[in-house]
Design goal:
CATH topology of the largest domain: Spore Coat Polysaccharide Biosynthesis Protein SpsA, Chain A
Shape: globular
Low-confidence stretches: 232-238, 246-269
Helix content: 25-40%
Strand order of the largest sheet: 2-1-5-10-7
CATH architecture of the largest domain: Alpha-Beta Complex
Largest sheet: 5 strands, mixed
CATH class of the largest domain: Alpha Beta
Structural class: alpha+beta
Number of domains: 2
Distance between the termini: 46 Å
Number of helices: 9
Length: 307
């Protein structure tokens, strides 16, 4: 078992079936110390009220131009978990969403004592990590080996953002409380924005049940994987702008790959047609750079003006 003091489950009251399934997954894996954080329902989000109360930033930035009430509600719900953990007597927590499941690699690594060593190093080097993600969007983690055994470093700002399972300590949760005082990023992107280094285990141990892919997304993903296999190009060598986006033709993406070695390769540029903004009143969208608190500069993000 992963050595955490408490598990916070973020769940919308209307989705009790998902909560029951998640609790069943936890207990089958031997985890019994959990607490449910009642998530905010996106149907109840009033952006004007949040702006007036200072809970929502006047600009919202996203790598793909996505914004809707559910994204805002999700970020606020994660903040509720941060505040709950911060006031508790626990030193280390695992925050999960209510659609997770453990991977086969988790159980294999348990048998091989990988998790045992992982726990030992979490304790031994507790001052050297702030956040540990247990999985990303799919069942693979793009990461590099760090100085600490079984505590790899996530390759950040790839299009596989996730916030369904991550470990925090009392030092790191204060950073997240500060960064979410006014919501300006989605919960998943905010993790990589806030922390310079995001650690992870050697394998994805917890995945998110994504449901069925759309035909378009499935086509783009399979085409991309085929191209990587044929060209032996690893995802970590590509900039986020190189990845296929919904609504971008796969043929265009293939051209980008073929011209990868060009000193000035063509890059996908976000535009309003790629943005997915609904049920939120906005004043406009610009595309430009976002600078993180760690002095990382992210190009071509959508900067959505709410006020």
């Amino acid at each position: 078992m992963i050595n955490v003091d408490i598990i916070y489950i973020i769940n919308v009251r209307e989705d009790r079936d998902r909560l029951v399934q998640t609790i069943e997954n936890l207990t089958q894996a031997g985890y019994y110390n959990y607490k449910v954080i009642e998530a905010i329902n996106g149907d109840n989000v009033d952006t004007n009220q949040l702006l007036n109360e200072g809970k929502l930033n006047k600009t919202f930035s996203d790598p793909n131009g996505n914004l809707n009430p559910n994204i805002i509600a999700c970020a606020l719900s994660h903040r509720k978990a941060y505040l709950e953990f911060n006031k508790s007597s626990y030193d280390r927590c695992l925050i999960i969403e209510d659609d997770i499941q453990f991977t086969p690699e988790y159980f294999k690594d348990s048998l091989k004592d990988v998790i045992k060593v992982f726990n030992q190093n979490m304790d031994k080097y507790q001052d050297k990590w702030e956040i540990i993600q247990l999985g990303k969007m799919w069942d693979k983690l793009t990461s590099t080996r760090g100085d600490i055994k079984y505590l790899n470093k996530v390759t950040k700002f790839l299009p596989d953002y996730a916030a369904h399972a991550y470990i925090l300590n009392k030092k790191s949760v204060k950073k997240l409380i500060e960064s979410t005082t006014k919501i300006k990023y989605a919960a998943d992107t905010n993790l990589e924005i806030t922390f310079k280094t995001v650690h992870c285990p050697p394998n994805a141990w917890v995945v998110q049940n994504q449901g069925a892919f759309s035909d378009e997304l499935f086509t783009n993903l399979t085409s991309t994987i085929r191209i990587w296999n044929q060209s032996r190009i690893l995802p970590s060598r590509l900039r986020p702008e190189d990845y296929p986006k919904r609504g971008v033709k796969t043929d265009n993406f293939m051209d980008v790959i073929k011209k990868k070695d060009n000193p000035n390769p063509p890059m996908f540029k976000n535009n309003l047609l790629n943005c997915k903004i609904f049920k939120v009143k906005i004043k406009g969208v610009n595309f430009g750079q976002v600078k993180t608190p760690n002095n990382e500069v992210l190009d071509n993000w959508a900067i959505i003006k709410l006020d």
